[in-house]
Amino acid sequence: MKLKLDLHDIYNRGQDIDHALRGIIDEAVRTKAPLVEIIPGKGSGQLKKHVLRFLEQKEIKALYHRVEKDSKNFGRVFVHFRW
């Protein structure tokens, strides 16, 4: 089961972005999902940087196994979990 979060609708609301990211990570932990796909979109790259900074936080990083930037689609990030 893969969870998906599309950030296009809230791209300019920082606190909502953090809340949505925390929500999808918590849901992945709760349901033991192996993969979360986060779509910050292509744009200027600022939203993707925000997502990656969020994922680098110590308490968040402890929850997942690794982050993969999609080599074929710049506007997509995968978060892998190991259960």
Describe the structure.
This protein is about 40% helix and about 20% strand. With about 80 residues, the protein is an alpha+beta fold. It has one domain: Ribosomal Protein S8, Chain: A, domain 1 (2-Layer Sandwich), CATH 3.30.1370. It has a four-stranded mixed β-sheet with strand order 1-2-4-3, with helices on one face. The model has no long low-confidence stretch (mean pLDDT about 95).
Q: What do the pLDDT scores average to? A: 93
> What general outline do the C-alpha atoms trace?
globular
CATH topology: Ribosomal Protein S8, Chain: A, domain 1
- Structural class designation: alpha+beta
> Cα-atom Rg, whole angstroms?
12 Å
Summarize the structure.
The protein is α+β, with helices and mostly antiparallel strands and 83 residues long.
List keywords for this structure.
Ribosomal Protein S8, Chain: A, domain 1; 83 residues; globular; single chain; 4 strands; 22% strand; 4-stranded mixed sheet; alpha+beta
